Amino acid sequence: MSPAVGRERGSVTAELAVGLPAVVLLLVAVLTIAAAGIAQLRCADGARAGARAAALGSDDAADDARRAAGEGARVAIAESGGWVTVTVSAEIGGLPFGGGALRASASSVARVEPSLGGGGAGEGLGAEAGS
Question: What are the CA-CA distances from residue 123 to residues 19, 24, 58, 83 (Å)?
Fold first, then answer.
């Protein structure tokens, strides 16, 4: 065995020991960002579904928004001047390393259908509903 080979013995193990934690940390960061993005998309879907239902006069607009946004979503509905605004927010739990909670939120605005005259969509508006 030559002296050069003997000195390099174990260098792969040392490089792996240094590099592996960095790879794991990067993977955790990517997964956390993906979870936040998915939560944001679900909130946007919930807000859109709730605004559409409220604009059509549904009394179940908050339930529609919550169903689309997922468990734990909070829904707020407000109507003003023939427009209805639905805001959906959700906390993103389970962050690694004891990090603080992230919150995803989205709002959607829709015009109340003129034939409804704001009648059905105004039921229970202005209150915040959560599960």
Answer: 58, 50, 9, 14
Residues 34-55 pLDDT 10s = 989 999 999 999 999 999 999 9
Read off the pLDDT of residues 17-29 as tens digits, 9 standing for 90 and up. 889 999 998 998 8
Give dist(CA 39, CA 72) in Å, integer: 11
Residue 91 structure tokens:
């906390």
Q: Which of 92, 119, 121, 122 is nearest to 105 (CA)?
A: 92
What distance in Å separates the CA atoms of residue 46 and residue 88, rounded to the nearest whole number? 7
Fold of 3-130: Pantoate--beta-alanine Ligase; Chain: A,domain 2 (3.30.1300)
Lowest-pLDDT range, 44-48, 76-80, 105-109, 125-129? 125-129
